[in-house]
Structures are given as structure tokens and as C-alpha cells.
Specification:
Blueprint lengths: L1 E7 L2 E10 L5 E4 L5 E6 L4 H10 L1 H12 L15 E4 L2 E9 L4 E5 L2 E6 L5 H28 L12 E5 L6 E3 L4 E5 L7 H16 L5 H10 L3 H11 L2
Parallel strand pairs: 2-4, 6-8, 9-11
Antiparallel strand pairs: 1-2, 3-4, 5-6, 7-8, 10-11
Helix pairs in contact: 3-4, 4-5, 4-6
Length: 236
């Protein structure tokens, strides 16, 4: 798989290119606004760019439609009383003076213990570190559960799991079968997290978003569309 791009108006349109033994070129705009192109093995790069450029207006129209579902959460200030999501639930932030710096859930609150409670940047760093640590635990736990949805779970074991900030995507599966998950996904409910993981595991068998991909996704997670809507609503 390779990534190509070209200018269109004042923007750059970027797409991921896969070559396969087929006669026609297919363009897919995904819900995260990423663009996938599948082209014949013998198609030249110039010809592919020409064909995709002709669909640029349609691509941007699809991206604008999907953009309404992207995360739109207001920038957090990390001050006491502010609400923060964790696993789909809202927790009110409480910042207290303490010699030991840590973050914990306690009686429906996200409690930050800090020796400088008035320093918002310190509170932010503590909360974000806590989110990342919880993501590493929870995502591995849910990955094991999601693999069991498949008839032969070991055939859908990723080569590795990477958790990091992603600009537009909730997750991806690399050609080397490495599962990448957006660390912000820890704010979503478990059923929404499971949707993203299961979606990406399906890419181990089908690297595209064609009919066979959705046949597999429908088979292992029949309610994936409802889960997807909940994800978009929770993190909008």
C-alpha cells in the first residue's frame, strides 16, 4: 500500500493506493474521511492520479458529509468541575492538593491529586497520562474479547498493538497486520471500542471496504452500524 496526493483548489487530497488483479479502479471515502483507491496492477501512477483527480469534487462532498460526525468536543481547560469522558460515562473533575500525584475514579468523580492543583498544565499532563495508561489496559482486554468473535480467533491476531494520537482515524490496520488505535477512543463506551477493534480486525482478511469486508463485519458483529452511531454521538 502506498499513499499519494494531489492539489485540488486550496487543499490537498490524499489517498491510500492498493494494486490488485482487477480491471477497474475503485474509490472509497471512509467515514473517517480517509480515501482508499484500488487500481489494476498495470495502471500507471499518472493514470491513477488522473482518474482520482476527476472524482475530486465527489471525494470532497463525501468528506464534508462525514466531517459532521468527527469529534467536536470543546477544548478542555482541566479545571475543577469540568466533565471528562471515560468509557462512555461523564465524570466531573476534582483537583485536590496532595503530596502524591495520581489520578483515580472515586464516587463518580475523576480525582486528580497534585502538589500544584492550580497549575492546569500539570493537571492536563496527569489526566492524559492516566488516559493513556487505561487505554493500554482496556484496549488489550477488548482486543482479546473481539478476536473471539471470529470463527478461528488466532487467524485474526494482529502482529502488534500501537496506541497513539491519530488526527482523523479511530483506528487502522497496517499491511503488516499491526493494529493502531487512537488513544482518545478510551473515552468511548466499551461497545463502541469493540466496534472499532472488530472493524480493524476484519481488515486482516480484507484490506479494503468492499462487499467481502462488510459481509465479514456483518457476520461477526451484526449490530456494528448501531455501535458506530453511538461512537459518533459519544465523541462528537
Amino acid at each position: 500500500m502506498e499513499t499519494l496526493h494531489f492539489p485540488y483548489g486550496n487543499e490537498q487530497i490524499e489517498f491510500r493506493l492498493q494494486r490488485r488483479d482487477r480491471k477497474t479502479l475503485a474509490i472509497t471515502v471512509n467515514p473517517d474521511s480517509a480515501v482508499d483507491v484500488v487500481a489494476p496492477m498495470d495502471a500507471t501512477t499518472d493514470k491513477i492520479l488522473e482518474r482520482v483527480r476527476k472524482r475530486a469534487a465527489w471525494i470532497q462532498k463525501q468528506q464534508r458529509f462525514f466531517s459532521q460526525f468527527r469529534p467536536r468536543t470543546l477544548e478542555r481547560q482541566f479545571i475543577a468541575g469540568e466533565t471528562h469522558l471515560y468509557l462512555g460515562r461523564q465524570y466531573r473533575l476534582k483537583v485536590v492538593l496532595d503530596v502524591q500525584q495520581q489520578v483515580k475514579l472515586y464516587r463518580g468523580r475523576l480525582v486528580v491529586q497534585s502538589f500544584r492543583p492550580q497549575r492546569q498544565e500539570i493537571t492536563r499532563a496527569l489526566v492524559e497520562d492516566w488516559y493513556r495508561s487505561r487505554a493500554h489496559v482496556k484496549f488489550r482486554e477488548r482486543l482479546a474479547v473481539c478476536q473471539e468473535r471470529f470463527p478461528i480467533p488466532e487467524d485474526f491476531a494482529p502482529a502488534g498493538l500501537v496506541i497513539r494520537q491519530l488526527r482523523q482515524r479511530w483506528g487502522s490496520m497496517t499491511p503488516g497486520r499491526k493494529l493502531i488505535l487512537n488513544d482518545s477512543l478510551i473515552r468511548a463506551s466499551v461497545d463502541a471500542i469493540d466496534y472499532v477493534i472488530t472493524h480493524e480486525l476484519c481488515h486482516i482478511a480484507h484490506g479494503h471496504h468492499g462487499p467481502k469486508f462488510y459481509q465479514l463485519l456483518n457476520r461477526v458483529m451484526p449490530d456494528w452500524e448501531n455501535r458506530k452511531v453511538r461512537l459518533e454521538q459519544q465523541l462528537a
